[in-house]
Amino acid sequence: MGIIKRKYRMKKKQKEVIYYRAEVYVKGVRISAKTFSTKREAVFWHEKEKHKLSTSPGSLNDEMRFKDCAEKFWQDLQGRVLQSTVQTYEFPLKHYLCSGPLANVKMCEIKGIKVVEWVQWLKKHPTAKNPRRKSFEKEMELLSTILNWYKNFLNEDFNVPVTKKHKQMCFFKPNAPRRPDYFIKPEDARNWIEWLRKNKDNPVYWRLASFMLLTGARVSEACGLKWESLDLDKGMARIVRRVRWDHRTKLPFLEDMTKTVQSARMLILPKKVQEDLKWMKKSAVNDLIFTDKKGELLKYNVIQSTFNQGFKALKLPWRSTHICRHTYATMALMGTNNLSAVQASLGHTQQRMTQRYAKAVALLSSDIGEKTSAILFDTAE
Hints:
By secondary structure, the protein is of the alpha+beta class. The chain is built from 16 helices and 8 strands. The strands form 3 sheets. The protein has a 3-stranded antiparallel sheet, with helices on one face. The protein has a 3-stranded antiparallel sheet with strand order 4-5-8, with no helix packed on it. Strands 6-7 form a two-stranded antiparallel sheet.
């Protein structure tokens, strides 16, 4: 720790003023500085700052090892985030961070070179040979989250060393970009629904797919719908709960909460959906709308497998239940040209997220070509 005091002579109102600047250095890095009008104030501030730094928890936490920091982060995480998020972090935290080369490194020694060594170790990890593994992007995001948590709660003077270079290093296999037409074409959607209706014993799957395509509801929101949330006379549905699927056991759980605050919303049901739901209500066995043959919550892996069977049979490129939400967003924007209304129906917090779902082609209107032609040619005549 060092201190540098400087005198500055500045002309202010044609009068010379003397300032005293106190600077505090730790390991060659200036961490704080302040200017005073008197030398006494500068010295007093410096001594106070020096005492605060020498007794602050941050200086003690510098000696903390990364695995201990990760454990504290894990304990703090338990009560603050959703159980699904905890399960998402659990495996990479145990196998990639707390058992890797960063585990026994002191927090004060975590620099850019240590992150590089960790990424190189990841690329040699047995899971890197998995054909589906394209990168360790999620693991890098988790590392950044832990280091930022350490900075925010344990040592505010810590500098997070993760850079753009490290993030780029995580990609070690070519990853094809998402198709610009990431939505099901109307004719393909109709054929897909018809395939599900004819080839699956349980009609719940084609009805679920239809509901998702026509309302933009997430699969978790659709599976969590109860009859009490519907007003079929007014053609409305309230999204107030969802289903969560355990990552390990795949078992479904009903939660009286939504993904975000904005996700709690009202859905306007098209007439076709209203008719289907009225017919389904006649044979309903419990308060849930979409259930398996036993009247229990649907399992996500079964839904995804069933949907994908239809896509494969029709030689369609999609392999996700979320494609229904992208399709609804694109078609809704194409039909209304009202991005704010589509955003509200999807329950998005930010409009740019809606723009990612509703493809740019949907913003085209039928009279664009005519108006362009009028500007280019009619005025020339």
